[in-house]
Specification:
- The protein has 4 helices and 8 strands; from the N terminus they run H-H-H-E-E-E-E-E-E-E-H-E.
- By secondary structure, the chain is of the alpha+beta class.
- The protein has a domain at about 135-255.
- The protein is elongated.
- The relative contact order is 0.09.
Length: about 260
């Protein structure tokens, strides 16, 4: 018991001494020792996605968890990317009727063309049979003695059928044109240029048209007759007087199959 009392007395003396020491040091001008700085707690490195987060000890709070507890950032809303819209494929219900309609129109047009072609062939066949014995021929008979035919041109219904010079007109029986023609009225046109044998400076050109009728199943012969008694090239040089005396005729002859 005595030892215990002594121990308590020593402890109380030590407390008194410790409490008096700062006051004594302050009276002597000594500054008390600065308090030791608090230990610096370095932040733990952020956990990487690959490294697992350290397990928290129950009852303890880590700095990271404290920071998360004080300020939690708003959770980022991740909107899934919109999937690309596939190209709209033509619906069979929309394209098939259109194709069918176009095909039907084309078939109808083709059918119409074929019908027209058949009818045209039929008409051509009938017309060909009618024209088989309905032909026309043209001859030129140049009876001028003192005149030379420089050139001649022939038309039938406005279409040119022959063009040539005097060498082709030497034979009056030469057929210059021969071809099929439909029965009915037609127009024969000619243009002839002639000059005087004595003096080629005296020349003329005449053009005329004549209508004629072609009979069915007959061959029609046209003969252009050129007759010229002009004396201007001879007489005008002698007595200053002369004339053009030109006569042109078109002979039309219908020849039946029985007459040939």
């Amino acid at each position: 018991m005595a030892r215990t009392k002594i121990s308590y007395a020593l402890a109380a003396l030590a407390v008194v001494v410790c409490a008096a020491a700062p006051a004594h040091a302050q009276r002597r001008g000594k500054k008390p020792a600065p308090p030791e700085p608090a230990p610096v707690v370095e932040p733990e490195p952020a956990a990487t996605p690959d490294s697992p987060a350290p397990a928290a000890t129950p009852g303890t709070t880590t700095p990271a968890s404290a920071a998360a507890a004080t300020a939690q950032p708003a959770a980022a809303t991740i909107t899934p990317a919109a999937e690309p819209t596939p190209a709209a494929e033509p619906a069979a219900s929309e394209t098939e009727p259109a194709k069918a309609e176009k095909l039907a129109n084309l078939q109808q047009q083709l059918s119409t063309v074929m019908d027209d072609l058949v009818q045209a062939r039929a008409r051509a066949s009938v017309l060909g049979k009618a024209l088989f014995k309905t032909k026309v021929s043209i001859k030129v008979d140049n009876r001028a003695e003192d005149q030379v035919a420089v050139r001649a041109a022939l038309w039938l219904d406005g279409a040119p059928v022959w063009n040539g010079d005097s060498s082709a007109l030497a034979d009056p029986e030469r057929v210059l044109f021969s071809g099929n023609i439909a029965p009915g009225q037609h127009v024969f046109t000619y243009e002839v240029e002639q000059r005087a044998r004595e003096d080629e400076s005296y020349r003329y050109t005449q053009r005329a048209s004549h209508r004629f009728v072609v009979l069915k199943e007959h061959r029609t012969e046209l003969r252009l007759v050129l007759d010229d008694d002009s004396d201007i090239a001879e007489d005008f040089a002698d007595d200053d007087e002369g004339e053009y005396d030109v006569r042109t005729r078109v002979q039309v002859r219908a020849i039946s199959p029985d007459d040939e």
